[in-house]
Amino acid sequence: MAKAKRTARNSEENSEGVSPRAVPQAPAGYQKQSTDIVGFWDSDKAEALHFVPLEVKLFDSKIEPHKPSAIVVGKLVDPIPLLAPGGEDEIIEGKTGDIIGVWYKPGMSAIKTLGGQKVFMYLSGELDTGKPNPMKTYEVLSKAKGAELHVTQDARKKSAHVETTFAGARGDARTNAKNPPEQGADDIPF
Q: How many domains does the chain have?
């Protein structure tokens, strides 16, 4: 009898030998929640950004790999045009609730303490810093202070030794005081 049950179960398996599972019914209103970035805000293409910053991801800069680059990841409040992922000049329409990326620049430092808050941000001008290109400045507005933005991914290799001002990054004095890095550790923390 046990053999008959096994045979019946095996006949229901798919081509990979895995039995199909019944899909449970989700409660009303539940939907998939993606953390994939659908596009990037470009202050030259969209006048203003209204979003909720959620987290920060760190990478080596593509232009100067020994310097870090940061993406602030957030959720759109108001629809705007976005640059499509992939580095091309394709423009897509971001919708309310979409997860987007904002390449962090020093002129938007106020955003670091606005995690979880609705933020209205726009390019406000430029500041001469004596470098070849002026620093872009941004107005960063919200109704209240939020949480400090934390690094959820630190994928730096060549710039891993460079200190950042984001909490939770390698090189963040607060993080290293609690969890000193191992000598010669090259692993990416997850």
A: 1
